[in-house]
């Protein structure tokens, strides 16, 4: 089947030998919302810019709708890019900004006007259409940038930290708008961010990157529940990691006893919310003994600090309504139960 | 120093500074209104606009011949205009090239800048010798024009370099990503945004060329530019008509400056707004 976007072994090495990205493989289907997530300098923006054509690639191939665009200049690629700083044209009005991409296209004037009108309407920009873009607020400017990028009807919309310059409130609003917009238009979105919540909340699939390498490509939930590498387990959510020695399928021997979980490896990854403060007593349940060292209840969520037998402190999340949660006092011994199904074994 | 004295002190200093700066010009301006029988020095015999009329040949008869600057003024203006166009175009293009580091960009930078650093008299002399050697006759539109460009182009280049230095590249990328060609992107996005810088580069080129003396001296040939022909009149006797002319060219320069200021105001209103906005966003 034809993919909207296909990256095959894409890599970029700078002339001085620095590797920005290597062996990037990804297939994106039409209408998918994919997020590139990683710490700054991990190569996510570089990859996006390679897809847009602003950076050339030194390895591999980039295909858009089956066509190799690796050597195509940015203006010929069917992509549109949205920038963190909006990159609006300061010398033009809102309408001129939005219409800019259509201006030089061979198309009847009425059709251009029609398209511009419709998109201005869609983004609620009619009231400011004749104002200069730089006089408006951040949220409005990002809407203008989106309208400008979408009016040319790209196959793929590339968003480079588009919410990074907005305050928290506005970020949530635009985030929701983006999600709705993407569903409505059915256009493929590639979204670069360093904020976990944005990537996990918006996308169908997340590409986690570190040091120019793809660590994992998964739906958000999967990423959360089944990290495949130590980096991902560290980076996503808050996990407790217990190292040991592999002893047969799905089991490792650790200083805290025998632990079982999904997958294979010598490191057990336990999500913070997998701990139960009162073991259920089900067969095969993992039990960890420790001492409660701290506790805080924020609304309905309880955060517990527990010191395990190997002296490490872990954080455990619990529901405030869980029986016994209120009665816990720091200093008392506690036994935590973990369902082995929630534990993932990875190679450390 | 006491802060109460600091402000008046600085004000007085600034006043004195400006007085020294414009003192010569003020003396010149006062003496230009000398009466028909007055000389190029104080006291002013009687106030009149006689020498202004004299400049345009509007006085009946005179003991002094008319100042022979008409043609050289026109020549200087045309030369300055030509220089402005060529230097600014070169300056914009090369500054655009210097936005990315290329092989040899370091030496190329210093070689360009050298054009404004080397002593004018020497370059002028060298050019005269060279033109003699290769058999090209010296002319204001030839040898002198080339040297004017060599001299003013580095200024235009530096101005544009500073402009591009704080230029936000993403607006160009946004334009490309919308499917607009690089040429159209330059014409419709880059150029309008850098236009205030282009105006400054033009102003620099024009003033420097219009005023150029040492480089022109050896390369001008027979038809002189304004600074040279004015210098030529010094060898005879100086009359207040020269001062009147000085006042008029100063007025012309001021007009040019005002036009520049108005254009800048009009075009930077757009720009400063955008910078303010981007800071807010960041």
Please explain how this structure is put together.
The complex is a heterodimer of chains A (348) and B (282). With 348 residues, chain A is of the alpha+beta class. Helix content of chain A is 24%, strand content 34%. Chain A has eight helices and 22 strands. In chain A, the strands form five sheets. Chain A has a six-stranded mixed beta sheet, sandwiched between helices. Chain A has a five-stranded antiparallel beta sheet with strand order 17-21-18-19-20, with no helix packed on it. In chain A, helix 2 (94-103) crosses helix 3 and helix 2 runs parallel beside helix 4 (138-150). The longest helix of chain A is centred in the middle third of the chain and has 18 residues, at 168-185. Chain A is elongated. With 282 residues, chain B is mainly alpha-helical. Chain B has two domains: 3-55, no CATH class; 70-236, MetI-like (MetI-like fold). In chain B, 74% of the residues lie in helices and 0% in strands. In chain B, helix 3 (70-97) runs antiparallel to helix 8, helix 6 (143-165) packs across helix 8 (182-211) and helix 7 (170-177) runs antiparallel to helix 8. Mean pLDDT of chain B is 86; it is low at 271-282. The chains are: A alpha+beta (348), B mainly alpha (282). Chain A binds chain B through residues 52-54, 73-77, 79-81, 83, 85-91, 100-101, 104-105, 132, 134-136, 138, 141, 145, 148-149, 152, 158, 165-166, and chain B through 168, 170-171, 173-182, 184-185, 188-189, 192-193, 270-271, 273-274, 276-278, 280-282. Chain B: Residues 73-260 form the ABC transmembrane type-1 domain. Chain B: It is a multi-pass membrane protein. Chain B: InterPro entries: Bact_Polyamine_Transport, MetI-like, MetI-like_sf. Chain B: One of its GO terms (biological process) is transmembrane transport. Chain B: It comes from Sagittula marina.
């Amino acid at each position: 089947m034809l993919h909207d976007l296909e990256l095959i072994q894409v890599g970029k090495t700078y002339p001085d030998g620095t590797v920005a990205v290597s062996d990037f493989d990804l297939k994106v289907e039409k209408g998918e919302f994919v997020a590139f997530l990683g710490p700054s300098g991990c190569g996510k923006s570089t990859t996006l810019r390679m897809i847009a054509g602003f950076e050339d690639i030194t390895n591999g191939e980039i295909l858009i709708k089956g066509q190799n665009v690796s050597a195509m200049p940015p203006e010929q690629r069917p992509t549109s890019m949205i920038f963190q700083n909006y990159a609006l044209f300061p010398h033009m009005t809102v309408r001129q900004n939005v219409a800019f991409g259509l201006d030089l296209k061979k198309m009847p004037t009425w059709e251009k006007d029609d398209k511009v009108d419709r998109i201005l309407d869609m983004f609620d920009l009619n009231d400011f259409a004749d104002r200069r873009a730089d006089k408006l607020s951040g949220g409005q400017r990002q809407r203008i940038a989106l309208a400008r990028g979408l009016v040319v009807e790209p196959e793929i919309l590339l968003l480079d930290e588009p919410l990074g310059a907005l305050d928290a409130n506005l970020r949530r609003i635009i985030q929701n708008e983006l999600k709705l917009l993407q569903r409505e238009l059915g256009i493929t979105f590639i979204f670069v961010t360093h904020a976990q919540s944005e990537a996990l909340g918006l996308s169908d699939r997340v590409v986690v990157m570190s040091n120019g390498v793809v660590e994992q490509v998964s739906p958000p939930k999967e990423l959360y529940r089944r990290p495949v590498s130590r980096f991902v387990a560290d980076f996503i959510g808050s996990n407790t990691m217990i190292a040991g020695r592999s002893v047969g399928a799905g089991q490792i021997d650790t200083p805290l006893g025998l632990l079982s979980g999904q997958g294979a490896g010598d490191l057990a990854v336990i999500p913070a919310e997998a701990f139960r403060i009162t073991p259920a007593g089900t067969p095969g349940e993992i039990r960890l003994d420790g001492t409660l060292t701290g506790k805080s209840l924020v609304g309905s969520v309880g955060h517990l600090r527990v010191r395990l037998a190997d002296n490490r402190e872990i954080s455990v999340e619990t529901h405030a309504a869980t029986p016994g949660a209120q009665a816990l006092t720091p200093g008392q011994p506690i036994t935590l139960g973990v369902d082995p199904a929630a534990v993932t074994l990875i190679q450390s | 120093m006491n802060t109460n004295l600091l402000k008046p002190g600085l004000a007085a200093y600034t006043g004195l500074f400006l007085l020294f700066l414009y003192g010569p010009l003020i003396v010149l301006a006062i003496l230009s209104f000398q009466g028909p029988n007055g000389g190029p020095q104080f006291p002013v015999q009687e106030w009149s606009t006689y020498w202004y009329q004299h400049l345009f040949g509007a006085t009946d008869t005179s003991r002094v011949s008319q100042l022979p600057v008409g043609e050289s003024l026109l020549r200087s203006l045309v030369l300055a205009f030509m220089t402005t166009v060529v230097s600014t175009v070169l300056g914009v293009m090369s500054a655009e090239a210097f936005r990315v580091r290329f092989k040899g960009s370091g030496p190329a930078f210093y070689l360009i800048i050298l054009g404004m650093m080397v002593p004018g008299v020497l370059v002028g002399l060298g050019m005269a010798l060279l033109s003699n050697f290769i058999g090209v006759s010296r002319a204001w539109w030839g040898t002198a024009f080339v040297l004017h460009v060599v001299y003013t182009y580095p200024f235009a280049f530096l101005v544009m370099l500073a402009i591009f230095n704080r230029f936000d590249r993403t607006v160009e990328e946004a334009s490309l990503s919308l499917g607009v060609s690089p040429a159209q992107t330059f014409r419709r996005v880059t150029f309008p945004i850098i236009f205030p810088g282009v105006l400054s580069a033009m102003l620099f080129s024009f003033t420097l060329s219009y005023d150029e003396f040492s480089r022109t001296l050896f390369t001008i040939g027979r038809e002189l530019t304004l600074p040279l022909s004015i210098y030529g009149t010094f060898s005879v006797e100086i009359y207040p008509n020269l001062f009147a002319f000085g006042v008029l060219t100063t007025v012309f320069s001021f007009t040019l400056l005002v036009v520049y200021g108005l254009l800048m105001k009009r075009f930077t209103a757009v720009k400063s707004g955008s910078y303010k906005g981007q800071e807010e966003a960041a």
